[in-house]
Specification:
Residues 407-447 are annotated as: Disordered. This protein is 56% helix and 8% strand. The chain is α+β, with helices and mostly antiparallel strands and 901 residues long. A 6-stranded antiparallel sheet has the order 9-1-10-11-8-12.
Length: 901
């Protein structure tokens, strides 16, 4: 099992904790940028602008390089980022924008004092010196004097304030930055956000702020907004509770359902921490609550529906008879759906991404606990309610019978029947009363004439009666009639599923993420604009080296022995005990052969600042001392003392090679290699680089002599590892989920025909749902991977409910079995889909991307899975469903329950 990390992480921990130190040659060029100060330019070191500034982005729709727009930007910057002396750095207090910079080099007192001539001269200077900047010849002898004189201005404008394309592909300045160095303070930043950015964005004379960024404020605001926007899932839960109350006619059942959801989360959290001993609790685990709401409501509707049918089928039975009947039927459906959904979540354990793996464990555990509550606690509550209702129902029936009888006698006296047509008084129990009846096909509860005593209850009963009749008509008449056209349904849904599968796999295809910045809010949110739309258009956050570097390590094993369930645990650094740079064959290969092999690689890219570390080492230790290889330990130690300064270890984004020491012993070596691959997040490009690195490892490093064997090469590929594992892990999770769903369906139904029909329906449902998400612009990121993986669990519920109802039906003939299945579970399935659909609709109003995307997913998966289960799966059963014992794997005795009627 792998994790989305590289072995540099373990090495970094060892260096940070002092286990290793580094020495490297003093002549190695350093990538750190030195402080720049112009004689007449009071600006900060560029590191403050790059890393510690409030970043604002401005546009006007035209060319910003004019006096009016530059002054407007300065004015907007003052309004947006107020003066805060307590947050200024001692070494830096000056904000930087293009207008302010021009004012500085032209010796103006403020940005508002610049003239048109100042702006024109600045633009002419940039046009003149642009080619020298882009070709990195600002210090060359051939460069014009005015460019050398204004070197800082030119480099900082191009490097910090204007877009990459400015003066290269276009002379029109469409977008520019303003940078205000400040110490990060969440209160200060939140005031800016709430006062200036939460409504209409600041604008002046056509110049408008379009993006904003300051340190990690986006994540701080996300944590706050996560709680604020929890109102949307809460509203969805409230709607589910209201529908559940109307359907069950019981406040206590509604409370029991909500209690089961909450208790499942609490118990799962206890098991997660205290039994599984998992310490890291990712944000994704919170989303389990949303899934539980829909699943628990589904079980509650099914249980309540079967309970009502039990009282109809066994009218003179006891509560024990009714609960046994309900558990035999509803318990089977709830078992199938709960275990398949739980398995879909647990399947995420195979993922290499820690957050997804932990989410699968927590969500799967929560569903199993919820199932145990729904077959123990929930039935006990229903029995308790029934015991309370029985005495009340007897009194209510007696009182209402007397009321109805009195009304009938008054009517008879006022309108006596004609002679010979006397009708005896109606004393039967079928007189109009508030009792529950059931249609012969569906068994769905319908209310008869309501009581006249309370107007609110009267209207409530009328609405409930009409809804009941509507549902009874749908599943007792309309849908069974529509299934007569099953060829149309089958062809249409198969075509839809295949078409959507093509959208996922062919065009446009499910794309891997392109941005390494984790998106937290909707794409239109102001805090996402910089990362999504503007970051790559500027050089502000580009490193000094614009290509990938490959790092080759010797003496350190490429082992990840950390805790795979804790992303912060990188384990211990393990050394290669066979590493010995003093061996003659090892020295010859390392100092004489390795560099030539490196230069022959397809990914190698020479640059002016890079020298091959082994060659430099050899030259200094042999030429100056008149020594020859191999060096003994005394010679090596003397060379290190003379030519190496002990400094900090290099970062893994730099071009420096290094030696790693424990005391005076060399424990490891790293060699940095420049490549010709530009820094990018494009999967195909980085995948090609990784394949080249693996070829280099197998063709060069694996053939190293004894003493320097076991070398390995890597690059800084965290985001590529995420992209790669998202694709492979999602496919694996889907396969495991589908296989488990098929096995559970097969074992519970004991009918391979129904199981095959069910799995075909689920696959088509999954393809259609995923295709719809792809067409909506989704990329395969962490949340999307989870959503697609658990789509199996949510898509399977309705199909399995219908399948189990079809199998256990006592009707003879596939058409009658289809009608019976629709009647018995159709209303409950529909209400379960409707409630979860409504919850998803409410969540789509959230500005938090996770809530919004989860809402989109819930609405889609509920609608699509209901349509496929009701019309496609039922059409399959209507057309070629198993009859009698056909398709049975074992004796029909395995089915311990039969539905009567």
């Amino acid at each position: 099992m792998k994790r989305v990390s590289t072995h540099q992480d373990t090495l970094k921990v060892a260096i940070r904790e002092g286990e290793l130190t580094c020495e490297y040659q003093t002549g190695t060029p350093k990538t750190g940028r030195s402080r720049r100060h112009s004689q007449n330019l009071p600006i900060c070191d560029t590191v403050y602008y790059r890393k510690y500034s409030v970043v604002t982005v401005y546009e006007s729709g035209g060319d910003l390089f004019n006096i009016n727009d530059l002054k407007a930007i300065c004015e907007l910057e003052k309004r947006i980022v107020p003066a805060t002396p307590e947050l200024l750095y001692d070494q830096c207090g000056a904000s930087l924008s293009l207008g302010a910079y021009i004012a500085s080099i032209r010796n103006r007192s403020s940005c508002q004092d610049i003239t048109r001539g100042d702006v024109s001269n600045a633009k002419h200077l940039l046009e003149t010196c642009a080619s020298a900047y882009f070709t990195r010849k600002m210090s060359a002898a051939s460069t014009r004097d005015e460019c050398i004189k204004n070197k800082d201005f030119i480099q900082n404008v191009f490097g910090l304030l204007v877009g990459i394309d400015f003066m290269r592909n276009t002379n029109i300045l469409k977008t520019t930055l303003a940078l205000s160095p400040r110490k990060y303070d969440v209160g200060f930043t939140r005031r800016i956000y709430e006062q200036r950015l939460s409504g209409d964005l600041p604008e002046q004379n056509g110049v408008k702020l379009v993006a904003f960024k300051f340190d990690h404020f986006k994540f701080d605001q996300f944590n706050r907004q996560l709680l604020i926007d929890a109102i949307f899932p809460a509203l969805g839960l409230l709607m589910i509770a209201i529908i559940l109350l109307i359907y069950t006619h019981s406040v206590l059942i509604m409370v029991l359902t909500l209690f089961s959801i909450t208790t499942s989360i609490i118990i799962a959290y206890f098991i997660y921490h205290q039994i599984f001993r998992l310490t890291f609790f990712p944000f994704l685990n919170i989303l389990t609550f949303v899934f539980l709401v829909g699943i628990c409501a589904d079980d509650a509707f099914v249980f309540n529906d079967i309970w009502s049918q039990a009282k109809l089928v066994i009218p003179n039975g006891s509560i024990i008879d009714w609960i046994e009947y309900t558990l035999n039927h509803a318990g089977l459906s709830m078992f199938v759906t709960s275990f398949t959904t739980s398995a879909a979540f647990y399947a995420n354990v195979v993922s290499d991404i820690t957050s997804i793996r932990l989410f699968g464990i927590f969500a799967g555990t929560s569903i199993l606990i919820m199932y145990s509550l729904m077959i123990t606690w929930f039935p006990a509550g229903v029995v308790f309610i029934e015991k309370l209702r029985q005495p009340r129902n007897i009194v209510a029936k007696t009182v209402e019978f007397r009321e109805n009888r009195a009304v009938e006698l008054e009517t008879d006296e006022a309108n006596p029947p004609p002679d010979g047509d006397q009708t005896p008084p109606n004393t039967d129990a079928t007189s109009p009363k508030t009792v529950v009846e059931h249609t012969p096909d569906t068994g769905f509860p319908t209310a008869t004439k309501p009581s006249h005593r309370s107007c609110p209850f009267k209207y409530y009963s009328v609405v409930r009666s009409k809804c009941s009749k509507f549902m009874s008509d749908i599943f007792g008449k309309w849908i069974p009639v529509s299934l007569r056209g099953y060829p149309i349904w089958l062809v249409a849904f198969v075509a839809l599923g295949i078409g959507m599968a093509c959208a996922v796999t062919v065009s446009p295809g499910l794309q891997r993420p392109k941005s390494s910045d984790f998106q937290l809010f909707a794409s239109s949110h102001i805090l996402e604009q910089y990362d999504l739309n503007y970051k790559d258009k500027f050089r502000l956050e580009l490193t000094t080296e614009n290509n990938f570097y490959v790092y080759v390590f010797f003496g350190i094993r490429a082992e990840d022995n950390g805790n795979y369930f804790d992303p912060k645990s990188f384990g211990d650094l393990h050394y290669d005990n066979s590493f010995d740079i003093l061996r003659p064959a090892a020295q010859k290969w390392f100092f004489e052969d390795l560099c030539s092999d490196i230069r022959q690689q397809t990914f190698f890219g020479q640059n002016n600042s890079w020298n091959c570390f082994p060659e430099v080492f050899k030259q200094r230790c042999t030429s100056s001392m008149n020594w020859v290889l191999p060096l003994n330990k005394t010679q090596l130690d003397q060379c290190l003392k003379l030519y190496y300064d002990q400094q900090s270890c290099p970062t893994f984004s730099s071009a420096r090679s290094s030696l790693y020491f424990q005391g005076d012993k060399i424990k490891g070596i790293s060699v940095a290699i420049p490549t010709n691959i530009p820094l990018t997040n494009k999967y195909e490009t980085v995948d090609g680089l990784w394949n080249s690195i693996e070829d280099f490892s197998s063709n060069v490093l694996d053939k190293a002599p004894e003493g320097i064997q076991n070398g390995w090469a890597i690059s800084w590929l965290h985001f590529y590892a995420l992209q790669e594992n998202l694709g492979s892990s999602t496919i694996t999770s889907l396969g495991v989920s589908l296989a488990f769903a098929f096995c559970v369906m097969l074992l519970t139904s004991m009918n391979w025909v129904i199981s095959v029909y069910a799995i075909v329906t689920i696959v088509l449902t999954l393809a259609t749902t995923t295709g719809a998400l792809v067409l909506a612009g989704w990329e395969l990121n962490i949340l999307e991977s989870i959503v697609i993986s658990v789509a199996v669990g949510l898509s399977v519920d309705f199909t399995l409910h219908y399948g189990v109802a079809y199998i256990v039906s006592s009707k003879k003939g596939r058409v009658d079995q289809v009608k019976s299945a629709l009647g018995h579970v159709g209303p409950a399935v529909t209400l379960a889909a409707l409630t979860t659909f409504i919850a998803g609709v409410f969540m789509m109003f959230s500005t938090v991307l996770a809530y919004c995307q989860l809402g989109q997913f819930l609405t889609l998966v509920m609608a699509i899975s209901w349509l496929f289960a009701t019309f496609f799966f039922m059409s399959l059963c209507y057309f070629a469903g198993p009859v009698g014992h056909f398709g049975q794997i074992n004796s029909t005795k395995c089915l311990s329950c039969k539905v009567v009627g």
